[in-house]
Amino acid sequence: MGSLDTYLPIFFMTVLGIIFAALSFVASRLLAPQRPTAAKEAPYECGIVPTHEPAHRFPVRFYLIAMIFIIFDIEIIFLFPWAIVFGDLKTFGLVEILVFAAAVFVSFVYLISNGALDWGPMKRVRPITSEVPRTTRSTVRRIGSSSGEAA
Amino acid sequence: MQDPLFIHGVGLGVVIIAIVKVLVVFAVLLVAVMLMIWLERKVISDMQNRIGPNRAGPFGLLQSLADGIKLFFKEDLMPDRADRIVFKLAPYLTLVPAFLVFTVVPLGGVVTIAHHRVELQVADPPIGILFLLAFSSISVYGAMLAGWSSGSKYPLLGSVRASAQMISYEAAMGLSVVAVVLQTHTLSTRGIVLAQAPHFWDWGVFRTGIVPFLIFWVAATAELNRPPFDLVEGEQELVGGFNTEYSSIRFALFYLAEFMNMITMSAVMVTLFFGGPDGPGFPFLRWLWPILWFAGKTFVFLYVYVWIRAALPRLRYDHLMDLGWKRLIPISLGWLLVIAGVIISPAWGFGILGGCVVAAVVLYQALKVARRRREIEAGAAGLGRAARVAAEVQLRQLAGPHEGGAS
User: Fold this and answer.
1) Alpha-carbon gap, residue B96 to B257, rounded angstroms
2) Measured between CB atoms, does B401 come within 8 Å of chain A?
3) Cβ contacts (< 8 Å) between A66 and chain B: which residues?
4) Residues B170 and B235 in one domain
5) Chain B residues 238-277 with a CB less than 8 Å from chain A
6) Same domain assignment for residues B272 and B236
């Protein structure tokens, strides 16, 4: 009696899911027309000809989130076995987990106070340098003029 | 605790029963997705005072089927900048986990077929709930790789957003699941359902004090990229999100997986918090009632998902991240500890509750420090050099004596 027997139906389901997806692709290949053109295969940008490559670098916040997530995920993985045996551990288990949670919480507070979990652009306070009144003549860019100010 | 089907080893009969279970659940899932897409379109259109699909079949019931068949005949495009292998792999990574997660959900009671005791769920591994969390995480890879391999701007942005959002809410989700496990002492989904019998006040939602359920619900909605958390496919910003470049049947499979995950998450909520197939039964057709109860409860959540989509506007991305990290995670962690305390004794519970209040105050102070730091930084960005240096000095003072270059 292998303990892996329980996973037999899950294995069947995996195979069935893969077969279903693969057969769909085969059917699509047989049924669908294939007339690719350059326009169809270009990256979709709402009809505009793409001028920039997609970004290779990302705001560092995304990596930060991924790293912080790992800390929390490990914490949660520790909590599962604890929750199972909590009935036997009683007060000892509770104190243990309180210490553990406190340690995690301290690092969490540190992260938050350092702004590691802040999002969105910073609000830039730009001092107003120009005294030109804001009218259509001063703000609307016109053909022939190089700057925003009207000629 | 073990799946009773496999207690006497694996024989031909057991394998046949397993295959039949898999096939039935597979077919039911596909039909359920079809009906769910129809239901969503119909309910939304009712709420918006439109008619919605009404041409294909009675009440437009076959509309999704018609759409699916149509997509088979559509040209399957491969963008020329795409990473071809990963582009083809991503739909599998999204679809297969969507099927797998549903396998551990208990659909009904236990019946006897040809001298085998058969649980009405595809599989009952002893670590069912961990299996569920693990495989719902794998679908993040599907979204991430689909967007990355497209070689296009918007899908890439959509997929990075999707993965950040999904992993952010997974932490809160996991913590609220731990709260349920704390009360039921088992990771097996069947065990969790059995521990919530026989009265409805034994259901997880009441025994864990509602808060974990609410957090799980919000987190599940975010995990599914459903409105109001559908920033992944914010049409106004990202065209269609990570699957923009996918067409034909590949797109259909992403769509299928999305709705299947929705059904699965509703089923999981029913399993964890609402007793799964638990409910009053009647002597005739004894095996049918639990299934009906399960389907009914799941349907309530599915309907609410559609309702939420019609009712709520989309969140802003920073609000989304703030909600996940700065509110849901601390609340669910605190509530988990309070539950653990109450299990030992009420005095411990109140003590920990007090500790949580103190922690909340500390957290609030930390948020204030972060906000001040940002204000100083933001101010410095728009100022001259002298003012920037002054702000730097101020920042260092804020950071304390131990920390040097914080900017």
Assistant:
1) 8
2) no
3) 163-164, 167
4) yes
5) 239, 244-245, 248-250, 252-253
6) yes
On chain A, the residues whose CB falls within 8 A of the CB of B249 are: 24-25, 27-28, 32
Number of domains in chain A: 1
**Same domain? B269 vs B356:** no
Residue B369 distance to chain A (closest CA, Å):
5
Instruction: Tell me the ipTM for this assembly.
Output: 0.79
pLDDT digits 0-9 by tens, B365-400: 888 888 888 777 776 665 656 666 777 777 777 665
Instruction: Using alpha carbons, list the distances in angstroms from residue B332 to A74, B258, B337.
Output: 16, 26, 9
Residue with tokens 């961990």: B130
Residue A9 resides in a domain: no
B103: its two tokens: 């396998």
Q: Does A19 touch chain B (CB under 8 A)?
A: no
CA A90-A94-A95 angle, to 5 degrees, is 120
Please check whether residue B44 touches A, CB under 8 A. no
Report which of A47, A39, A52 is spatially closest to residue B151, judged by C-alpha positions.
A52
Decide if A57 touches B, using CB distance below 8 A.
no
Q: Tell me which residue range forms the domain holding A110.
A: 58-119
Asked whether residue B119 is assigned to any structural domain, the reply reads no
Q: For residues A22 and A10, what is the distance between their CA atoms, to the nearest angstrom?
A: 18
**Chain A closest-CA separation from residue B283 CA (Å):** 30
pLDDT band, very low/low/confident/very high, at B263 (cuts 50, 70, 90): very high
Q: How far is B254 from chain A (nearest CA, A)?
A: 11
The span from the CA of B95 to the CA of B78, in Å, is 19
In a domain, A124, yes or no: no
B138 and B255 part of one domain = yes
**Residues B258 and B314 placed together within one structural domain of the fold:** yes
Give per-residue pLDDT as tens, B79-137: 877 888 888 888 888 889 988 998 888 888 788 877 777 778 888 888 888 888 888 88
